[in-house]
Write a structure and sequence with these properties.
This protein is an all-beta fold and about 55 residues long. Helix content is about 0%, strand content about 20%.
Length: about 55
Amino acid sequence: MEFKRTPDERFQDLPDWPYEPRYTETSDGLRIHYVDEGCSPTASRPGATCTAR
C-alpha cells in the first residue's frame, strides 16, 4: 500500500492549535502525531489524540 505524507508546512500557524509537533514512527515508516501537554488541573483523567500522517 502506498502512503502519502502531508508536507509539514501545511500544519504551521494553524488557528487554535498552539501545540508543538511531536511524532513517533511505526516500524513501517509511518509517522503518528500526538499531543503531550500534561494534565489539566480540571481534567478527571489524562486523554490522548493520535493522527497518522
